[in-house]
Amino acid sequence: MSRIGPTFAALKAQNRKALIPFITAGDPGKGMTVPLMHMLVEAGVDIIELGVPFSDPMADGPVIQRASERALANRIGLRDVLAMTAEFRKLNTSTPVVLMGYANPIERMGYETFAEAASAAGVDGVLTVDIPPEESAGVADLFKAHGLDPIFLLSPTTPESRIEQVAAVAGGFIYYVSLKGVTGSANLDTDEVAQKLAMVRKHCSLPVGVGFGIRDAATAEAVARIADAVVVGSRIVGEIESAAEGTCLERVKHLVEELRRGVDAGSR
Amino acid sequence: MKLTDLPDSRGHFGPYGGIFVAETLMAALEELRAEYDRARADPAFMAEFEYELKHYVGRPSPVYHAKRLSEAYGGAQIYLKREDLNHTGAHKINNTIGQALLARRMGKQRVIAETGAGQHGVATATVAARYGMECVVYMGAEDVTRQAPNVFRMKLLGATVVPVSSGSKTLKDALNEAMRDWVTNVETTFYILGTAAGPHPYPMLVRDFQCVIGREAIQQMPELTGRQPDAVVACVGGGSNAIGIFHPYIPYEGVRLIGVEAGGLGIASGKHAAPLNAGSPGVLHGFRSYLMQDENGQITETHSVSAGLDYPGVGPEHSYLKDAGRAEYVPVNDDEALAAFSDLCRLEGIIPALESSHAVAYAKQLAPTMKKDQIILVNLSGRGDKDINTVAKVAGIEL
Asked: Which domain holds residue A53?
């Protein structure tokens, strides 16, 4: 069973908001991912999004593209990402792990094979950026049948009529993309996001996470005030990229603790 | 369901096609689909499209009997559908005019495009100038180098050319970058996609705009020869010129439809761009189709001497026609294409695009297996002025 629902329920009981970091599996090196995941938990995150590297990450900006390229240079494939998750689960059985990536690696493995393997590895949710609900009829059901939450995106361009349609197939939480653009894009307008979230909540009872444009304690705090979860990707991946050898874990920990303080300040 | 009735309402050609994009683009694709439905039912829109094709592009493009080439190849008579004579020198303009007219209907003042050989970029820059729109063209950094004349043409036409240095620095990366631009500027920008690929409705609307090629040929061939050809041959990268000539011929059961993919250095070498011959189905750039990929589902690097064919995927309708057995797809290697390029230059006084040279090269293999009174119609999709630097380089000549 997915750990995502219980995690949000427990946070809600404590009046807290979730912090969800994104890292690309295999970046900066194959052996770094599992230590990074444990360190993220230690620094106070609630759910981990693990990026599955893909050669053509159409929805990502340059920072996450480069992370994908580094991971691919380390020859990391979907099977390696599942193995890393299983390795992480040896020491951590409580923090939900969401795989985030593109359709083709899963398509290549086969949806059924992937769903079984992901479930066995201890994955809790799957966000496939380029499979909208229209193309996911059988896929979402298959994931659910294997205890995997199919997580979907909503965006500023999603019309109200579609929100219901997305909510009908989604599981775990809704990932609201705070701005038009690719990952790592510029400034977000929290008032605009708040308005849209009110509309989302009218049609959907799942928790709502907000990502894109969150880069420090202040933006994390602002988003925590309006969302159930704060998702941070490019800022963390950028920190990994710029860290000198041997300082990666320390620098990411420092950054994530800062983001945690922001989220907690926004939860009050 | 008939082969000509596809795609279905959600863009599927059997298991292929569809809409595999991030949520931010879903509304824009739906808006485009709805507007295109209205446009094609609007006689004024279609009349303007046809007027532009006639008076601006110079259509209909002629069909030409390449007698000396036929003689040299020793078999079937070879006819060329002369898309190289269109304004801007290739079939690409048929589609960019259609899409620019759609953009104008939708009130979008900025258009973007991806380009490989630069032909689609030039055709987009041309229509942007023609209709007074801002134009940004994404082009792989490697292609910017090997297609320098087209880069300059786009700049002369007022477009901004953005070199793309991510990934393999070719067409697929230019497409990724164009998609990223579109996601960011979706409300003000129209994405003029250059081939019959991408998310629905692009494969359908690009095909529809390019079908003028096949419709004209169906009229012209009986006028010239008293009948339809035995085989229609076209090169296939994304596959827009091929689907443009194939689609109207689908109901003509006696006509073989043959798509020619870029065999590069040979299928066995792995250095090619022939997904229909040596790939497997997958999802890339918003649609499901045959792809060149590794065991992990990563898209593999392609190779072709022709930038316009250097793409790891193929339009979804071609995947469907392959599986349905209605069209055949064969590879032609770089050296064979270059030889055919030279044949057409010297025997007919026509410098063909390297892309189109692949189709000519297959006609060279096919013709001797056929009788002298049989007919091959080759879609000569573009002219080769843009390729003279590449050809000189291969020959070891400094220009």
From this structure: 4-267
Is the link from the previous residue into B7 a cis peptide, with omega within 30 of 0?
A: yes
What's chain B's length in residues?
A: 399
**Contact residues, chain A, for B167 at CB < 8 Å:** 55-56, 69
A65, A74, A76, A130: which to substitute to probe chain B, counting the most B Cβ within 10 Å? A130
Residues in chain A: 268
By DSSP bridging, strand B189-191 and strand B287-291 are unpaired
Active centre residues of A (catalytic) = 49, 60
CB-CB under 8 Å, B282 with A54: no
Q: How far is A204 from B33, CA to CA, in rounded Å? A: 27
Element of type H or E holding B136? strand B134-140
How far lies B196's CA from each of A24, A135, A156, B85, in Å? 33, 20, 28, 21
Show pLDDT as tens, one digit a residue, over chain A (268 residues): 899 999 999 999 999 999 999 999 999 999 999 999 999 999 999 999 999 999 999 999 889 999 999 999 999 999 999 999 999 999 999 999 999 999 999 999 999 999 999 999 999 999 999 999 999 879 999 999 999 999 999 999 999 999 999 999 999 999 999 887 777 776 778 888 999 999 999 999 999 999 988 999 999 999 999 999 999 999 999 999 999 888 999 999 999 999 999 999 998 7
Question: What is the Cα Rg of chain A in Å?
Answer: 17
Q: How many distinct structural domains can be found in chain A? A: 1
Question: Is this prediction's pTM over 0.90?
Answer: yes
Nearest to B183 among A132, A152, A182 (CB): A182
Q: How far apart are alpha carbons B364 and A12 in whole angstroms?
A: 72
Nearest to A65 by CA among B229, A73, B48: A73
d(CA B198, CA B390): 28
Contact B327, B306 (CB under 8 A): no
CATH number, domain of A125, equals 3.20.20.70
ipTM metric: 0.95
